[in-house]
Write the structure tokens for this entry.
Amino acid sequence: MLRLLRISAVALGAAAIGLGTAHAADVKIGALYPFSGGLAQLGDESFRGLQIAVEERNAAGGINGNKIVLVKADAADAEQAAIGAQHLISTEKVAAVFGSYASGISLAATQVTDPAGVPYFELGAVADTVTGRGFRHVFRSNPTARNFAERTIEAVVKVVAPGLKVDPKTLKLAIIYEDGPYGTLVGGYQKEEAKRLGLTVVESQSYSAKSLDLASLVQRLKGAGADIVLQTSYKNDTILFFRQAATAGFKPKAFIGAGGGYSLNDTASALGTAMEGVFNVDFPQATMGEAGAPGLRSFVISYVRQYFMAPRSGHSLVNYVGAKAFLDILANAKSADKEKIREAVLAYKKAPGTTATGWGFQFSETGQNQLATANLMQWQRGNPVTIYPASVATGKPITRR
């Protein structure tokens, strides 16, 4: 797969496909993502997965013979998300809204779409509250903050501690997280899970992802003698934290991220060798093993043809897989009626190991896909190597002592 990712788009000789212009029988769907501001890179990466899924569906006949047309709306923050969702519903008259990468954006947008009876298909936001508010027409394909938190603690117990040849209960954990919905939920669940397993948490601290100085936080962790740092963060705060940790001489035995900034090639490029050996729990990556993820190779080829580069993170892949499922569901519903669409969601099932992420699909009454999982990766030689679960692993963990 790594070799495939290095294939140049020029060699493949393909050009990007436009979104087209709506006609009478077209099915318009909204694409609500942060296309500007601090979350724009991952918002755009997420949108690319949706775009590829739509183009594939249109090439195969669209939704019951009707072409799908994507209508983009920028949502740099929660306020803009609500405005964008209203625009998509009232002005663009979309049949459904797809989004949105960030939990704050999803929470705000769905407050608008659900009362209006417009289905919202979440493909990337992880806050459990997205599908935990009793909304009947909000559905999510990806794993939740609790899934991420539990996997990070599992990494401490089953990967890091055995690699260090120590009892995990002897390790001192520091849990730090950005103070938005994403970070707060993951951090909170990490503390719960650590307590349940009898692990030692010596520091737990939130901070603003917009912070320009995290030196005092670094000093607190260093002073507490933290062995393992669990961080839930975006790109800029991840880079800032690592640089200030290096300046302070803070060298814990392991860093474990929970997606976000820890997933990006740009973060790894900015930090260089400082990212070597760093663990990350996140969405499935395009570099993982293909045996347990049928369709992964096809997705990567389509991505490189379309964007002339390899996927920048796993966000495009999970948006692609989720979008394919929800487009199937819209076709199965054979109706724009919101209750028919809900029935089609709850009836939709795929076994684990049958999609390009390795996920299956089975939705709860709350609209959450119960078969979505997060993987454990480690940055090795500049690449995010999947090390767990075994069905998609491409390498083994390296632990420094």
User: Anything to note?
Assistant: The radius of gyration is 21 Å.
